[in-house]
């Protein structure tokens, strides 16, 4: 019989500011004749763009896999990801322990990191309403591709969330387990995978069209909190005196945060 016990959860809350236009989650097919070639994903109730947690989580995972030099050995849809195929490699694999492996893998333990969808802030919603954007809450970017043989211009239009707006609060929840196949001390050490993923994201892009200027984002106002299994209150105990304005501040306080988590969980 397998026994796994949750001993604590670490909460990340932060904002994501668009530094360049964000094109995320849309279809490659125009919604109507003369419409844009790629649209952004929208909340069906509010019609407002949002960032799917799966997109944020998937990008962080992909960047971390390449940063660690891991083999891309499993196809998920159209993408290739890394997934451990043996229990001995899984036991020490940072990426698979934090982000999980496919359900059919028999030796897996619970996925550590949950990433929520991220909505626009109320302030950004109001700014976009007042800006009279090309489409509700978004802009249209036109790009022209030139056929190298015929020299014929082929203009295409892409929908993006404009630069300078804020999505938040974003929330990620990281669970720490003890028991069969789980080690709380290791789970705490592997929190660094999440820190690294956020830093890699800032230096890359989120969504599509990143090589053409879209998708640069900045993490702001980061809070990290803890709930222990013994005192699972309504609000996490926040581990910094104030939100961290930038990820550079996280670098300074990272070791103190990890030590505080170890102390409160008696690990």
Topology diagram in text:
Elements: E1 4-18, E2 50-51, H1 53-68, E3 74-76, E4 79-81, H2 87-90, H3 94-99, E5 113-115, E6 118-119, H4 122-131, E7 139-146, E8 153-160, E9 166-179, H5 184-189, H6 191-202, E10 217-228, E11 237-238, H7 247-265
Antiparallel strand pairs: 1-9, 1-10, 2-6, 3-4, 5-9, 7-8, 10-11
Helix pairs in contact: 1-6
The count of DSSP E runs of length 2 or more, i.e. the number of strands, is 11
| Global mean pLDDT | 90
Number of H- or I-type helical stretches: 7
Strand-residue fraction?
25-35%
- Strand order in the largest sheet: 5-9-1-10-11
Question: Rg, please?
Answer: 21 Å
**CA-based shape:** globular
Which oligomeric state applies? single chain
Succession of helices and strands: EEHEEHHEEHEEEHHEEH
Give the end-to-end Cα distance, rounded to a whole number of Å: 24 Å
Main pleated sheet: 5 strands, antiparallel
Helix content: 25-40%
Spans of at least 5 consecutive residues whose pLDDT stays below 50 are 29-34
| Structural category | alpha+beta
In total, how many domains does the architecture comprise? Answer: 1
